C-alpha cells in the first residue's frame, strides 16, 4: 500500500501497480532534465508570441510579418530521459481510423490512456481501408524511434506484440471500440478490469474516444506533449516540407487556404452547391457506395444554410476580398484534388492570380515517393499550413482544427475561424443585390473580429461533447505558460 501511494504522489497520475524508485541522484537529474524541457518549451512559445494576432492587420495585406531568425532556431539536443519504472497491466493495440489528422489526435489520446492505465502501447496501425486507401504505416509518416524514445519517461511503447500473443500461438486479443468522449473514470472502471482477463486489448476505433474537458491537467498536458513533440514526421517528409516552405517564403509572405472542396468531403456531407446536376448525382452515388457514410438523403441547400457545408472556391474569392486580402496575396492551396478541377478554381484564380500548390512548386520527381499516399501528401500540406502567415480553413474538419491548435501553440498565429452560417447568409444577401460590396465587406469583417485564433478558454457544452470546442483546436491547458491564465477569455 505504501508503494502504491508513493507512486501516485510521485507521478501525479493514477498508477495502479508497480514499485517506485526511491529518491536518488538519478531522480534529481531526471527532475532537472524535465525542468529544462519545460523552460525550453516556454522560451520557444514566448519567442513565437512576436507573431500575435492584431486586429489592425485586416487592412491591406493581413499578417505579413516575417518570421525572425530566433523563431527558426531548433531546440538543443538533450540527453535521453530515463524510462519510467512501472509494472505493465497489459498491452494496448490500436487501429486508427480516418485521415492523417484524425489519426494523429487519436494517437495522442491513446498514449494518454496507456499512461493512465499503466499499459504497454504497441505502435499504432494506421487506417488503410478508408476512402483514400493509403497503404502507409506509422513509420512511413512519423519518426517511430523519436516517438518511442521521447515518451519513454511516461509510457512503454513497443513496435510489435511479443510473439506469445500472436495468432501463431492461438492468442486472440479482446477487440472493442471504447465509448466516445469518455473520461478517466470510464477507462479506470470499465476498461482497466478487462486487462485482468485479457492481457491484450485491441481498440479497433480510436477517433474521439477521450473527452475534451473534465480531464486532469497532467493528462491534458501529456496529450499536448505527444502532439507537439513526440509525433514528428519522418526525415523525408520533414526535408521536402521544409523545402516547399522555403520555396514559398522566397516569393514573400503567404496565406494557406485549406480548401476542403474535395470529392470525398462533398460526397460525405451531401453538399453540392455550385455543382452541375451530373456532379450532384455522382457525389450521391459515391455516398451510397460507402456504408459507413450513414446519412443518405440530404438536402444540400438546407445543410448549407446551417453552415454545415465547406465553402466553395467561388465563395472564398468573395470572402477573402471582403477580409482585406489584396490581389497580389500569395495563396497556397492546401488540399487534394479540387472537385471540378480548374473550372471550379477559375473565379478564385481570377481574384488572386498568385495561387500556388505543391504540384506547381516541386519537381514531379520530389513528389513521386508520396504519390498514392494521401496521408504523406497531407503531411506536406500540414507543415506548410502551420508555417504560413495566415491560415484559412473553409471547413472545420480534423486538419483545420489540429493546424489551428499548432498555430496557437506557436504563439497564437493568425487563423481565421470562419463563421460559415453567417457567411452563407451574407453571401446570399450580397449576390441577390440586398447588400452592396462595401456593406458585405464590413459585415464579414465584423463577424470575424474575435475569430482569428486569439487566446481564449475552450468552449464547453455540457452533455453535448460533439458540440464543444475540440481539445486539439484549443488546448488552453498547454498554453498558460505563454498567455498567463488571466489573458484567456471565454470563447
TrEMBL record:
Signal peptide: none
Pfam family for this entry, one: O-FucT
Transmembrane segments: 29-53
Compartment(s) where it occurs, according to its Swiss-Prot or TrEMBL record: Membrane
Superkingdom assignment: Eukaryota
InterPro entries (UniProt xref): FucosylTrfase_pln, GDP-Fuc_O-FucTrfase
Cellular component, GO annotation: chloroplast; membrane
Gene Ontology molecular functions: glycosyltransferase activity
Keyword tags: Carbohydrate metabolism, Fucose metabolism, Glycoprotein, Glycosyltransferase, Membrane, Signal-anchor, Transferase, Transmembrane, Transmembrane helix
Pathway this chain belongs to: Glycan metabolism
Topology of the protein relative to the lipid bilayer: Single-pass type II membrane protein
Listed GO biological process terms: fucose metabolic process
Annotated family: Belongs to the glycosyltransferase GT106 family.
Name the UniProt record assigns to this protein: O-fucosyltransferase family protein
Species per Swiss-Prot/TrEMBL record: Perilla frutescens var. hirtella
Amino acid at each position: 500500500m505504501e508503494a502504491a501511494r508513493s507512486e501516485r504522489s510521485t507521478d501525479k497520475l493514477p498508477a495502479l501497480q508497480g514499485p517506485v524508485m526511491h529518491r536518488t541522484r538519478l531522480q534529481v537529474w531526471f527532475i532537472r532534465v524535465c525542468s529544462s524541457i519545460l523552460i525550453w518549451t516556454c522560451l520557444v512559445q514566448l519567442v513565437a508570441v512576436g507573431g500575435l494576432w492584431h486586429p489592425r492587420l485586416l487592412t491591406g495585406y493581413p499578417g505579413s510579418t516575417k518570421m525572425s531568425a530566433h523563431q527558426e532556431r531548433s531546440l538543443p539536443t538533450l540527453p535521453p530521459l530515463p524510462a519510467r519504472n512501472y509494472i505493465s497491466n497489459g498491452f494496448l493495440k490500436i487501429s486508427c481510423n480516418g485521415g492523417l489528422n484524425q489519426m494523429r489526435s487519436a494517437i495522442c489520446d491513446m498514449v494518454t490512456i496507456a499512461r493512465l492505465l499503466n499499459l504497454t502501447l504497441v505502435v499504432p496501425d494506421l487506417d488503410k481501408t478508408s476512402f483514400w486507401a493509403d497503404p502507409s504505416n506509422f513509420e512511413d509518416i512519423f519518426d517511430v524511434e523519436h516517438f518511442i524514445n521521447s515518451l519513454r519517461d511516461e509510457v512503454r511503447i513497443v513496435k510489435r506484440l511479443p510473439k506469445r500473443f500472436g495468432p501463431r500461438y492461438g492468442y486472440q486479443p479482446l477487440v472493442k471500440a471504447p465509448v466516445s468522449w469518455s473520461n478517466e473514470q470510464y477507462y479506470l472502471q470499465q476498461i482497466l478490469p478487462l486487462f485482468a482477463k485479457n492481457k491484450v486489448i485491441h481498440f479497433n476505433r480510436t477517433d474521439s474516444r477521450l473527452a475534451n474537458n473534465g480531464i486532469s491537467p497532467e493528462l491534458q498536458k501529456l496529450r499536448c506533449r505527444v502532439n507537439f513533440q513526440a509525433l514528428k514526421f519522418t526525415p523525408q517528409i520533414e526535408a521536402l516540407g521544409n523545402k516547399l516552405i522555403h520555396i514559398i517564403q522566397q516569393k514573400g509572405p503567404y496565406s494557406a487556404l485549406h480548401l476542403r472542396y474535395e470529392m470525398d468531403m462533398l460526397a460525405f456531407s451531401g453538399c453540392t452547391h455550385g455543382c452541375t446536376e451530373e456532379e450532384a448525382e455522382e457525389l450521391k452515388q459515391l455516398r451510397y457506395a460507402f456504408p459507413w457514410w450513414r446519412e443518405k438523403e440530404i438536402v444540400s441547400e438546407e445543410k448549407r444554410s446551417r453552415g454545415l457545408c465547406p465553402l466553395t472556391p467561388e465563395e472564398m474569392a468573395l470572402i477573402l476580398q471582403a477580409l482585406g486580402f489584396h490581389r497580389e496575396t500569395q495563396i497556397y492551396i492546401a488540399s487534394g484534388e479540387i472537385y471540378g478541377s480548374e473550372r471550379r478554381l477559375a473565379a478564385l484564380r481570377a481574384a488572386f492570380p498568385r495561387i500556388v500548390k505543391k504540384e506547381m512548386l516541386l519537381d514531379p520527381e520530389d513528389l513521386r515517393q508520396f504519390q498514392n499516399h494521401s496521408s504523406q501528401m497531407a503531411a506536406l500540406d500540414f507543415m506548410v499550413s502551420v508555417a504560413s502567415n495566415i491560415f484559412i480553413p473553409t471547413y472545420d474538419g480534423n486538419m483545420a482544427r489540429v493546424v489551428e491548435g499548432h498555430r496557437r501553440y506557436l504563439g497564437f498565429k493568425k487563423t481565421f475561424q470562419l463563421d460559415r452560417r453567417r457567411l452563407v447568409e451574407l453571401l446570399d444577401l450580397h449576390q441577390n443585390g440586398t447588400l452592396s460590396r462595401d456593406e458585405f465587406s464590413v459585415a464579414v469583417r465584423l463577424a470575424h473580429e474575435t475569430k482569428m485564433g486569439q487566446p481564449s478558454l475552450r468552449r464547453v457544452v455540457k452533455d453535448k461533447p460533439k458540440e464543444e470546442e475540440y481539445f486539439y483546436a484549443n488546448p488552453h491547458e498547454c498554453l498558460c505558460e505563454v498567455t498567463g491564465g488571466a489573458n484567456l477569455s471565454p470563447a
